[in-house]
Amino acid sequence: xxxVLRRISFVFFTVVLILFxxxxxxxxxxxxxxxxxxxxxxxxxxxxxxxxxxxxxVHPCDCGTCDFTFRTVPAADHEPGDTRKIYAISQYETxxxxxxxxxxxVLEEKFTGVEIPQPPHTYAYIHGMFxxxxxxxxxxxxxxxxxxxxxxxxxxxMNLTELTRIAMERCKTAREAIQLMGELGEKYGYGLDGGExxxxxxxxxxxxxxxxxxxxxxTPDSGKPGAIWCAQRIPDDHISVTPNESRIGEIDLENxxxxxxxxxxxxxxxDNGYYDPESGEPFSWKKAYSPWGKSYINPRTWGxxxxxxxxxxxxxxxPNDELPFSIKPDKKVSVKDIMExxxxxxxxxxxxxxxxxxAGPFGNPNRWRPLNWEVDGERYSWVRPIGTQQAEYxxxxxxxxxxxxxxxxxxxxxxxxxxxxxxxxxYAGINEIPYSFQIGDHWTFNxxxxxxxxxxxxxxxxxxxxxxxxxxKEAQYxxxxxxxxxxxxxxxxxxxxxxxxxxxxxxxxTDYCTQNAEKVINAWWDLGDKLLVxxxxxxxxxxxxxxxxxxxxxxxxxxxxVEYDNRQTxxxxxxxxx
Length: 578
Fold this sequence. Notes:
By secondary structure, this protein is α+β, with helices and mostly antiparallel strands.
């Protein structure tokens, strides 16, 4: 086999399998969205699966055009009769910064006309596209999972963004949040978004929650639930992953320790022909509402399990329906482990995105859209990694039971693409997130917006990826690993202040998070400058010795060029005798 074919055959083999599964649905599956090429990969970590005993959630907000700003919402007291407005907030909408901040100016334009009663008190929380963590360590991550197209519900009021924000305002535990979001969806209708999944955790439990709309004929006056939802708890010593597909299979509603669901969880499927109780088959949530089929292969599920539990020796070509809902990792995982799996490009596996012609001569794992493409009438696709270049940001939450809630909860935010970002910690008890995190968009370069510092460094990494990523990792080690090592010290200082005065602890945490974030952002602007200079015009400039080194193409790539282009030798091309 030729060198070119040897290097690319495994890539084409795997992507054709993946694409085949995306385009060859059965009659029931034709109405499910083919979304493997975009969307978010969420994770859940149980408290006994983590090295420090924390539960964790992960949300890589993979979009490429969405809003990437964050803000804090303070706790508030409310008078009897006070109401909360419900807004139709699309996950994907953005506005020109000249109009104003999304959450301050534009929000009123999205008022649905529906208001719900306020409780006497609402909690403080941090949110971006969704609510991520509140002052009681309730934490969330998200992944779009799809549903039958005819289930879309334009008459619904609630959407996923609002459900997460309301849960953050009113709930202390994962169970409370699931119950509240489910009830709100049932009462007011869930729509605007399709089938969605949330990874939900408190300091003690980690739950996988999915919610679906119920179709265009639903109205508030119908007397029927306006949503279908189901939740499954993962064992405390397990981790789970949701790569844009429904993950809940067979359910046992009598086992209330591990399952929760809406009253119509099975009846809706029966009424709409998604499940036949006479078939003899047990009811499966995912097969009923978001089917992908027995042949569907999603490398993200396998990849995450392989990364965290290689001893399972799972076959990379295992259809996702046959992969377990959750697994026990080979060793207890640290927050750094979770950061690294969120950056995973399947290095060293059959799906390795740093290998082959598609990665170029410098091992670049990023694939730009379209991710599905045709050659000579045949369809192909790039493998979809866990760590993708179109991420707005990645959040990793930690909920830690042994500390007071404002100190125990942390959301690590990595702005931009996962491989070149730096995760920055923000405690649940902070009073304000830095202003640089509250501003910015994709269409206007802004040195005051934190996100642009990471995009700037990432842009200059792409030129000579295999070289530049080493410089990025050095910076990550200094600032990311440095923050991880510093957290226990910050915890204890904050705890001592908390015992004296909780407000002093919050002020201390706010100051630390703000100063640390500013330090990292400045470092990443500096990193971008250094990468620009170091890899300028294709060379490697080392400032220490003021030398310029030529870094050529690897031999295998040059051989591939000769073979693919059918290039002649110098003597042949210029007709020179040897």
